[in-house]
Amino acid sequence: MLYILSGIIGLLVIVALFTFIRSKKSGDSNEEETTAPPADCCGAHAICEKGLKKADTHIEYFNDEELDEYKQIPPEDYTDEQIEAFRDVLYTLRQEELEDWLISLEKRGINYPTELRAETYDMLP
After folding, report:
1. Can you tell me the distance from the alpha carbon of 46 to that of 23, in angstroms, rounded to the nearest whole number?
2. What is the distance between the alpha carbons of residues 105 and 100, in angstroms, rounded to a whole number?
3. In whole numbers, what is the pLDDT of the chain averaged over residues?
4. Which domain of life is it from (predicted)?
């Protein structure tokens, strides 16, 4: 009887060891590998992911068609009146629309006024 009990316990120990070793090996292969971000990554992943929207050729407007007349004006050359036109649109946007609006301006070739950048960055989510 003692031999049978010893045999069963030995068999259970062997099965437990094989199960442990096998799960250890398969656990290593299922772990996600950590990769370094691309060199041009800014660290603001929510904004970097918007790069996919930049690749899309569709332009979304935010009731700001009047800003199209400012295409190709350097960002530091806007008049106070033109800056106010940007500001008027800026303060009608919901916070979650802000990044999409900036992408829309970029797609349309409209430079964002330098004077509004700090104010806008403070509003980003």
Report:
1. 36
2. 9
3. 80
4. Bacteria
* pLDDT digit string, tens, across residues 5-38: 677 776 676 777 777 777 766 655 555 555 665 5
Whether residue 90 contacts residue 62, with contact meaning beta carbons closer than 8 Å, is answered with no
Residue 15: both structure tokens together = 């099965």
Note the helical H segments in 39-79.
45-48, 51-55
Give the C-alpha separation, 72 to 98, whole Å: 21
Kindly give the interhelix angle for 114-123 and 98-107, rounded to the nearest 10 degrees. Answer: 150
Closest CA to 82 of 106, 113, 61, 103: 113
Token pair 């199960």 is found at 19
